[in-house]
Structure formats: C-alpha cells, structure tokens
Write a structure and sequence with these properties.
- Helices cover 24% and strands 12% of the residues.
- It folds into two domains: 41 residues; 127 residues, no CATH class.
- Strand 3, helix 3 and strand 4 form a beta-alpha-beta unit.
- The chain has three helices and six strands; from the N terminus they run αβαββαβββ.
- It has 230 residues and is α/β, with parallel strands linked by helices.
- Pfam families: LytR_C.
- This is LytR/CpsA/Psr regulator C-terminal domain-containing protein.
- It comes from Xylanimonas cellulosilytica (strain DSM 15894 / JCM 12276 / CECT 5975 / KCTC 9989 / LMG 20990 / NBRC 107835 / XIL07).
- Keywords: Membrane, Transmembrane, Transmembrane helix.
C-alpha cells in the first residue's frame, strides 16, 4: 500500500501557520513577562508608579478603644439619638486621592438631606482604610448619632472641647445606610467600649488661627489638621 504524495502547497501553508502562531505566542509571553516585572518593580518601590495614588496599605489600622455612651438623665433605656439638626458634622476625604467632589461630597449630600448641620467639607492629610468618626468628650452622643447611619465606623475620641464631629472617609469606605434602616431607638454602645475617663485621647484639630508664627508667617499644616476645600 502506498501513501499518497502530500501537496507541497499545503505543507508550506501549514508551516507558515505554525510559524505565525509561534510568533504570536512568543510576543504574548514577552508582554506578560514585562507587565509582571513592571508590577513587581512598582510594588517593591524600585520604580515610581505612573499614577499619583499610592497603593492601599495592607497592614491593619491601629486598634482604638471607643468611649461608652454616657448615662443621660430621664433616658433609663440608654441615650437617644440627638435631633440631627443639633449635630455639627465636618466631612473630610481621607482616601488619599485629591478632591472632595467624590466620596466626601457624596456623604455631604446624603447626610445634609437627613438634617445634619454640615460644617467644613475638605481633604484630610491622613490616609485611612475605613471610615472614622473623631469627636471630643462633649460629642460622644452626637458621634453615636452619626454612627447609627453607617454599617460600621471607627470611633476615635480626641481632645477637642466642643461637640462637633468629624467624619473621615477612608479608601474602603462604607456608604450611609438607607434611611429606613437607621434605628431611631436608644443608641447602643460600641463593642469593647470603655468609660470616657479611661480613654487615651488623640490630639484634636488645631483651633482656627493656629499655625502662624510670631512674625506673621504661616507654618506648614500639621498631619492631623484637615485642609478645607479650596
């Protein structure tokens, strides 16, 4: 039995197809290798990233102990939420990206529509992963009132002496709950809370006008001070 002679043109066509496939696969493998090496170099800091925003840190944020709610006279079942119009709420973008029109502005729109008295809206120099509320001892009930509008939020007590509350919106932020899901009953203590007099407070925001030296010049803003929206 004899084998039919193969068509030379067909053989040449198959050879060209194999060569073309080898070139395509080789280019794809080379591109994948280049992208992988570039990503590794950016991640390790060997070269600068072609974009301004830094990678979100993978290490968890420092644990903080929230203060417990104070005992309120004539409210034996626990402190009730304050009327929203009595809460002065400042909102800061702490995601590390420039501009406040995005996440900070979105929170402002939702919370102002619910009646909160919005103070300053701007950028914060500190980059956070999760949302954080900052407040002084006089603002504990106000802070818990704001916290009831979020599925979770870090509660950080600082040394400010008024009842204002700062909302710092982090990179992995939680949006406000739907208004129908916000409890109007007595507020609940945060898990692991301690009495306010047992809390080590973090520094509060600098008073207005602080930061000018004796010669009238301005000192650089401290890392803990928010930058107002420009």
């Amino acid at each position: 039995m004899t084998t039919p002679a193969q068509d030379p043109a067909r053989i040449a066509r198959r050879r060209r197809e194999h060569e073309r496939q080898a070139v395509i696969y080789g280019v794809l493998i080379a591109l994948i290798a280049v992208v992988g090496l570039g990503a590794l170099a950016i991640y390790t800091g060997a070269i600068d990233a072609p974009f301004a925003r830094e990678f979100t840190p993978s290490t968890p944020e420092e644990e903080v102990t929230p203060p417990c709610l104070p005992v309120v006279e004539d409210q034996p079942d626990g402190a009730l939420p304050l009327p929203y119009g009595e809460v002065v709420l400042n909102i800061f973008n702490a995601s590390g990206s420039d501009g406040t029109a995005g996440i900070a502005g979105a929170n402002e729109s939702v919370l102002s529509a619910r009646g909160f008295q919005i103070g300053t809206v701007g950028n914060h120099p500190k980059t956070l992963i999760h949302n954080e509320l900052r407040f002084g001892e006089q603002g504990i009930v106000a802070a818990y009132t704001v916290a009831s509008h979020f599925p979770q939020v870090r509660m950080v007590m600082d040394t400010r002496e008024d009842a204002t509350v700062d909302l710092l919106v982090g990179t992995n932020f939680d949006r406000p709950l739907d208004v129908d899901d916000v409890s109007t009953g007595p507020l609940k203590n945060a898990e692991g809370c301690k009495p306010a007099d047992e809390i080590t407070m973090v520094p509060g925001p600098a008073p207005t006008g602080e930061g000018e030296d004796a010669e009238g010049g301005e000192e650089p803003a401290d890392d803990g001070d928010p930058a107002p929206e420009g």
